[in-house]
Each structure stands twice: as C-alpha cells, then as structure tokens.
Write a structure and sequence with these properties.
- Mean pLDDT is 84; it is low at 136-151.
- By secondary structure, the protein is an alpha+beta fold.
- Helices cover 46% and strands 19% of the residues.
- The chain folds into three domains: 4-62, Nucleic acid-binding proteins (OB fold (Dihydrolipoamide Acetyltransferase, E2P)), CATH 2.40.50.140; 65-134, DNA polymerase, domain 1 (Orthogonal Bundle); 153-200, Helicase, Ruva Protein, domain 3 (Orthogonal Bundle).
- It has a five-stranded mixed barrel with strand order 1-2-3-5-4.
- The chain contains nine helices and five strands; from the N terminus they run βββαββαααααααα.
- Helix 2 (65-74) packs across helix 3 (82-92) and helix 8 (169-179) packs across helix 9.
Length: 202
C-alpha cells in the first residue's frame, strides 16, 4: 500500500496530477478540487490509496487523510468502485457527502451520476453509522493554486472532466454553456468546473 506521496508536481490536470517521487513521475488520480490545489513546480503532499487490479495499478490521491478514508469507506458498499467513489467526492465534497450519509439524506446522493434512489438508500443504510465513526480531520492539503484559463480552452477541459465523472457529453456541454457567462472575469478552470458541478446538481 502506498499511503502517501510527497514531491514536486510535474503536471496538473483537472482530475489528476503527476508527482515526482525519487525521480519517478507518479500519476495520481484526484478530485478536481485536489488537482486545483496543486501547482506545477511546487511540492505537494497527498494521502493516497493504491487500487490493484489484474491488469492495472491505479493511485488515487487526496488533500486530506479523511478524504482518503471516505473514498475507501464508500467502496465497502456493493456496486461502488473507485471511479464512482471519486465521483461522489468530486460532486459533493467530503464534508457534504459525510453530512448526507450521517443524516440519511438519500435524495442529495442522487445528484451524483451513477447513483439512483435505491443505491442512495443502500449507501445511507450501510454507511450512516460507519461514516460517523471513521470520518474526521486528516492530513494537510496540497498548496493552493488555481489552474489558469487559456481563452476558451476551459470549455473542453471542463466538459471532459464532467464526462469523466459519469455525465453524458450532451449534459456536460449544456452545463458548460450554462456557466459560460456566470463566472467572474479572469476565473480559472477550477472555478468554471465548480460552477458546472453546481449546475449539474440542480
């Protein structure tokens, strides 16, 4: 198990970063919020979990240890894999997700692509008590720095991130168009993505 990585950031994407560790660039899949908190050339410290499959080794990273704990906890429910777990944390954020689970707010969980009413009820039933005891404060976050925008390039980046989280290309395109004129002048890509995620939850 790789519990954490620390080193200079070589590359930042909307949902992943590359951290240089001992001369090796490690691709770490993250939530958009964690990726936006990293900046190329600066050191990042990420709590991580390694998902082992027959044909792949995939590393997932988080700004806090508590986020990693939540990522691992939700996967104890049948039908929830790493991709859906990461989408849950990306759409709701760890604090909001924990609140929804502990208060039994199944309706809020259905805003996440891939989770219907029955799945949301199962998540609440199985995790309500477990989340209350395992979710707490965790390790430090990575250095905060926004992803810069380059003209209209943010549209493709945000749409790609939304599709990666489980929405259709049409839904992603509609969300991008909806938020195009709502962000403040000079907004970074992460800001557009947060606005788009908010739009998708309506």
């Amino acid at each position: 198990m790789i519990a954490s990585v620390r080193g200079p950031v070589g590359h930042v994407g909307l949902d992943h970063v590359v951290v240089e560790v001992g001369g090796v660039g490690m691709l770490v899949h993250t939530t958009p919020a964690t990726a936006a908190a990293c900046h190329a050339g600066q050191e990042a410290i990420l709590a991580t979990t390694l998902v082992v499959r027959e044909d792949s080794l995939t590393l997932y990273g988080f700004g806090r240890g508590s986020e990693r704990d939540m990522f691992e906890t939700v996967q104890t429910v049948s039908g929830v894999g790493p991709r859906l777990a990461l989408a849950m944390l990306s759409v709701m954020g760890p604090d909001e997700l924990a609140a929804a689970l502990t208060t039994g707010d199944a309706k809020a969980l259905t805003a996440i692509p891939g989770i219907g009413a029955k799945s949301a009820q199962r998540l609440v039933l199985e995790l309500k008590d477990k989340v209350a005891t395992t979710y707490g404060t965790g390790g430090g976050a990575a250095p905060v720095a926004p992803l810069p925008t380059r003209g209209e390039a943010w549209r493709d980046q945000v749409a790609e991130a939304l599709v990666g989280l489980g929405w259709s290309a049409k839904q992603a395109s509609d969300a991008v168009e909806s938020v195009a004129g709502t962000a403040p002048e000079g907004a970074d890509v992460a800001t557009y993505l947060r606005l788009a995620l908010r739009e998708m939850r309506r």
